[in-house]
Design a protein that fits this description.
It comes from Paraburkholderia ribeironis. The chain is an all-alpha fold and about 200 residues long. It has nine helices and no strands.
């Protein structure tokens, strides 16, 4: 091979590596901005008892692209849920859950939304039994949807079982067991030669 061809190949490889490094650099910068926005949402809710509107709208001076990132919206929804603003948190969670597919962020949002419904339904401050049962029903539906998307999610299985324990599903009136049939004992014929 000639020297020119070798230098050309080396230059091409160097340009490809430089392009890859530039792409990684921009991804790193975007991730840093998103992490700062998530940290700001978390810090605001940790330090003060903040109103639902200020958490939902973001911080003044925040980068709008980073403030609208799905990870930041998930952090805002979690902060609103912890602050007790369930309606606003539910809307943010629902915006992160896509009907056609559930990615990692969508599964996390669905799990957190179902947990919020379960906490609201099982809480001591439940307004009425009907509302409580509706919230637990919403939680069960969320856990079932999550388990259809990710059948190996043991946290969702455990929480679904807990929700079913709080509000069991029955098809109607309880069925009385037939005690007589349970106590009937049959013995094999001693002359039988077949194995059990």
């Amino acid at each position: 091979m000639t020297r020119t061809l070798m230098h050309g190949m080396f230059g091409t490889i160097a340009l490809c590596c430089a392009g890859w490094a530039a792409y990684d650099w921009t991804q790193l910068q975007d991730a840093g901005q998103i992490n700062q926005a998530v940290a700001a949402v978390t810090a605001v809710t940790a330090v003060t008892a903040v109103s639902a509107a200020s958490v939902a709208n973001g911080k003044p001076g925040e980068d709008p692209a980073a403030a609208d990132a799905p990870q930041v919206r998930l952090a805002r929804a979690t902060a609103l849920s912890k602050a007790g603003a369930y309606d606003a948190a539910g809307r943010l969670y629902a915006g992160l859950i896509h009907d056609d597919r559930l990615d990692d962020l969508g599964r996390t949002a669905l799990f957190d939304l179902a947990n919020m419904y379960l906490r609201e339904g099982a809480g001591e401050g439940a307004a009425s039994t009907v509302k409580s049962l509706n919230m637990i029903g919403e939680a069960k539906a969320g856990y079932r949807r999550l388990l259809r998307a990710a059948p190996d999610d043991w946290d969702a299985r455990y929480n679904l079982e807990r929700a079913l324990w709080l509000a069991p599903e029955t098809d109607g009136a309880p069925v009385e067991p037939n005690v007589k049939s349970q106590h009937n004992v049959t013995v094999r014929d001693p002359q039988s030669k077949d194995l059990p």
